[in-house]
Each structure stands twice: as structure tokens, then as C-alpha cells.
Amino acid sequence: MDLVTPTSVKRYSPPFAWRLLATALSFALFGIGGVILRVAIFPLLALLPGDRLTHRRRARATVSRLFHLFVQFMSRSGVLSYEIQGVERLGQPGQMVIANHPSLIDVVMLIACIRDSNCVVKQSLWDNPCMRGPIRACGYISNSGSLDMLDEAAGALREGQTLIVFPEGTRTTPGRPPEFHRGAAAIALRGARLVTPVVISVYPTTLTKAEPWYRIPSRRFHVCLRVGEPIDPARFASLGPAPLASRRLNDHLHQYFMKELAADERSASRD
Fold first, then answer.
1. Helical spans, DSSP H, in the chain
2. Residue range 243-268: mean pLDDT, rounded
3. Could you list the residue ranges that cross the membrane (predicted)?
4. Which domains are seen in the chain, by residue range?
């Protein structure tokens, strides 16, 4: 799914008042859309023929397409601009997509890029009235932090699903480097055929863990997703016992993201 926007588009920024209104409309649209999916769209899709796997794929394709349209709405209304580099590398069987998590829009854009993806999501979202319908229909995995969660995630990868994971577990605290939990590396070593890093940068920062939705930046923000080269987890599995291999893979990923994010910051400071 092509979400690539010419980088020149990010130079134009609509007036502040318009972007604030468009941001409010975006949040309202997202919330209302989630409720409509839960009470109307997914019950109708459930009536269509097919087994459990077919229904799950249908639900994920629906969410992916709607997220694509949502990103288009935010872009065309002037809230954000974006670019995605290397999108053709996403969506492979048994692929674990690992990304940093600077803003609320990250997971939306990644799911929009991958038609049939699984995702590890926060436990609290399972009780969110706007999100629990899509989450359950798509068969996403709850980030409970238990061993059962690790087994479920690894099992999804062994089945050939594409799995999106944010190793930080929550959005990055502004001004601090990302902190990766080792659970993502443990999942990769248990079930992934390949690990694909996606470096996400958002400038100016917005929709972070510390900011309410209405505290928008002084100009249209730009989101960049850069899909890196795949990593073979077997390289690390052969280094020793599982805890050691997990720690080394986690360190490798953390260093990779720190290096790439530092390069993004230098690039942003020159713009």
C-alpha cells in the first residue's frame, strides 16, 4: 500500500487555528470510527462466509484500509505530512516489525502499510470502548508482560503472520532516548524468520506521552518511517543460551535505533 508523500509537501503549513480544528476532527473521527466498527461493520463482516482465519484476515484488511484513509485525512487537512522509505520490505511471512514509538500516530501508519498484520497492543486498550472492537476482531495480542504473551506472539510468527512490536511498550518520553525491553528480542528468537527495524521520527514532536492532543506544534508536523534492512535472528540464537542471545539482540537493536535517530535529529536541525 503506497503511502509515500513527496517530501516537498512538508514545507507548507496551514494556519494554527485550522490545524487545531483539523486535529480535533481527526480525534473525533478516530473515536467514532472505532465505535462504528464495533457495533456495525464487524458484526456485518462476521455474517460473511469463511473460517476463523478468513474472518481475521478480513477484519485486519478492513482496519488497514481505514487507517490508510485516516492518515490521508490528516495529511490532506494539513495536520501532518509524511514519507515512508522502504515500504516494500514490509508484510513478509514470519516478519517481526520492530519500531520506536514517539507518537500516537505510529501504530496507525504501520498497520496502514501492512494489509494483514498482527500487533502487540497495550492491555488498557482492550477495555477502551473505541478500540476494543477492532483489537478483538483482528486478533491482536495483549501486552500483558506474561510468558503466555511471549508464547502467543512467537506462535503468531511461526504461523507466518507479520507482527508489529514496539519494544518500549509505550510512547517515548520526550527528551529521553528510547528504552527497549528485552521481551521483543525474546519473541524474535522464539519465532521470527526475520526482524525488520522501522525508525520513526516526528518533527516537531507532538502526540507524545506527555502532551494532550490539543497542544499542537507551531507548524504542520512531519512523520518519517524508514524501513531498515532485515536482521536474521538466527545470528543471535547461535551466540549462546536464550537469555544471553536475547540480551545481545536487544542491545544490537537499541544501538541501531540510537544511531539512526541521532542521524534524524541532525537532519531535522538543518531543515
1. 16-36, 42-46, 52-76, 105-113, 132-138, 147-158, 183-191, 234-237, 242-270
2. 91
3. 20-48
4. 14-270 (3.40.1130)
